[in-house]
């Protein structure tokens, strides 16, 4: 009943563990996918940040270049009034930066005088136009409310006169002269009949400057790009701005003319195709109205590495944590399976142990009852026979108890090896002689072959005899047909090989891997007509490894099994 209950429990546990395994696997796969998505989002975010910083740096570079270009050619204009109060002369002072000085200062280069575009006489307005302009003359009342348009036309470049003598005799005293939207107000001075005066509220200097700037854009010849931008200055501005923006990736920059798509300059020799395909580009001097447009291009050959390097630590930590979780999961699952397997073997061990003790106890009980029932009728010979049975069965139980206790002591480490030089061949003979009588009763032939040149090894003779005892006991139990057991020794490199070969049922490959595990018995071994607790071979492995050796099994199903012990050979107290 306990075994049946255990089997039913194991079936339920198998379903439960399968469900747990599925849920855990699903969770791990989901966790991995989430981490991959997070890494992808982090990568995209890093790319966006990098692009944003580069674009900001590009804008700053262009702004610095444009500011520098403007500062190199500061134009200061002022309207100078002559002694007659005539606003007809404009003086232009041209300043340039002193490149020889460490300080950023500007010096006067030269001065030029220009005639103003507008000259007002008592009876006419004289216009000096360099380009075609839209002219409009508006009459105002004293409250400066617009009355009518006295003149409006689009005049070509040249000198033009607009007569106003017919207007000054009217009641209208205020006028607005509009040149492309720029107003020049003037009025009739009543204290001096017939004299027109520029409105003092007009900021004539600002208007004249605006007029000159417009003319400069419209008429002046553009300055060559190489004169506006120095390569050394450009290199300094680019690298300084990138450093200020926190961009440490290697940068290749260049200038491309948009008109013919030609490369004007490139800072380093790189593959032109990815350079031209860079998305990090902007116009140079974007506020120039009538000059050829050029683009400044920034190209980062190591952009991917620059973006990925900050993520490597995060990705590495993520991988380590995921690996740790997966490893823990695998270890837990393996531990659960091992515990289930161990529990099953423990149940088999208990059942086998129960059988091992039940049989001798029953025999002892029967012998005791026989002695008790006919104590007076028993002769001495039968009494001795019953006594021998009780003694043998008691000894059998004692051996089983000792084996269990020995394994418990070995697992707790509560044992000591009494290492001393031992003649291994004599030890084998002694153990074989102990089995020979029992083997002959079961028609088992035991043969020996000592081919090892060296017969002395440093071992604990008691424990090693128990190991050989277990191997011979298994060989006898699992032999079949013409039952023959062969015990032999060999020198194998630096080891003494002690092997026990039988022609028994053999072992499958998967059984050979587990045969030295505690409580493990091959399936046929769980049948109670084959005695044993599943502790013998695990004891052998433990003791041999404690001697610094190892065990090995070679078997073929239904043909043979060879269990070998390899013990290190020592010469002059030094292990080979």
Give me some keywords for this one:
5-stranded antiparallel beta sheet, Heat Shock Protein 90, 5-stranded mixed beta sheet, rod-shaped, 46% helix, 3 domains
Could you provide a short overview of the structure?
This protein has 576 residues and is of the alpha+beta class.
Strand order of the largest sheet: 7-6-9-10-11
- How many alpha or pi helices? 11
Number-wise, the strands total 24
Category from helices, strands and their pairing: alpha+beta
Query: What is the 3D shape?
Result: rod-shaped
Give the helix/strand layout:
Blueprint: H1 2-72, E1 74-80, E2 89-97, E3 106-115, E4 118-120, E5 124-129, E6 133-140, E7 146-155, E8 158-163, E9 174-179, E10 182-189, E11 195-198, H2 204-219, H3 225-228, H4 231-244, E12 252-257, E13 262-266, H5 272-276, E14 281-284, E15 294-299, H6 303-373, H7 380-412, E16 420-423, H8 424-441, E17 445-450, E18 456-459, H9 461-478, E19 484-492, E20 495-502, H10 509-514, H11 536-546, E21 550-556, E22 560-568, E23 570-571, E24 574-575
Helix pairs in contact: 1-4, 1-6, 6-7, 8-9, 9-11
Structural commentary:
This protein has 576 residues and is of the alpha+beta class. It folds into 3 domains: 2-69 and 304-354; 73-219, no CATH class; 416-575, 2-Layer Sandwich (Heat Shock Protein 90). The chain contains 11 helices and 24 strands. The strands form 7 sheets. A 5-stranded antiparallel beta sheet has the order 7-6-9-10-11. A 5-stranded mixed beta sheet has the order 17-19-20-22-21. A 4-stranded antiparallel beta sheet has the order 13-12-15-14. A hairpin with an 8-residue loop joins strand 2 (89-97) and strand 3. Mean pLDDT is 75; it is low at 74-114 and 525-530.
